[in-house]
């Protein structure tokens, strides 16, 4: 079965700093999704990547899917306290269901 | 309001009791999912449904039962709750186009 590993598990950064979260799959990714979860709340969809080499941006968050389609990175530029939360990558293993990584907990301090 | 809602949001129960978590969506999406979220494990799929009367097991189905008699509802039942089922449960739905829409979660504590 396909597995997703995220790194780092936890990240603490100072406001204004850039950061990167990685998601590595044990198998080829047919679709890679990034979600954000605020503490104690549900997940919010950030973006979806499907093509090798694809890159998408939303405000200060950029996600990339590598050419081999087995790794994705999420980059936040000039982090803000509002970026704090848990970031999860999700993958479509070419079936009906979506699987998720273990998550990266991000804290941003002033 | 349109969307996906879960109830109850918080539940405390005792070992051996039956508990049902409800999930309701107003979009008439085909697919519905139940996940549990635990520290160190991320989100794990319990059961999912591709349509009314069609359900299938996910990664961690043991101890859970689901049904889907109507497209909009997807209840999750713990027939005899155990402490290991203490978790936050999320229901999600999608039209099949990729993006999942999540409920706000149901926090279950089994004493």
Can you describe what's shown?
The complex is a heterodimer of chains A (110) and B (111). Chain A is mainly beta. In chain A, 0% of the residues lie in helices and 54% in strands. In chain A, β4 and β5 form a beta hairpin. Chain A is globular, with a radius of gyration of 13 Å. Chain A starts with a strand and ends with a strand. With 111 residues, chain B is an all-beta fold. Chain B has strands spanning 4-7, 10-13, 19-25, 31-38, 42-51, 54-57, 64-66, 76-78, 87-94, 101-102, 106-110. In chain B, strands 2, 4, 5, 6, 9, 10 and 11 form a 7-stranded mixed beta sheet that branches. A 4-stranded antiparallel beta sheet of chain B has the order 1-3-8-7, with no helix packed on it. Chain B is globular. The chains are: A mainly beta (110), B mainly beta (111). Chains A and B meet through β5 and β10 of A and β4, β5, β9 and β10 of B.
Low-confidence stretches of chain B: none
Q: How would you describe the shape of chain A?
A: globular
Low-pLDDT residue intervals, each spanning 5 or more residues of chain A = none
Percent of residues in β-strands of chain B: over 45%
- How would you state the average pLDDT of chain B, rounded? 92
Protein chains sharing the most extensive interface: A-B, 23 and 25 residues
Structural class of chain A: mainly beta
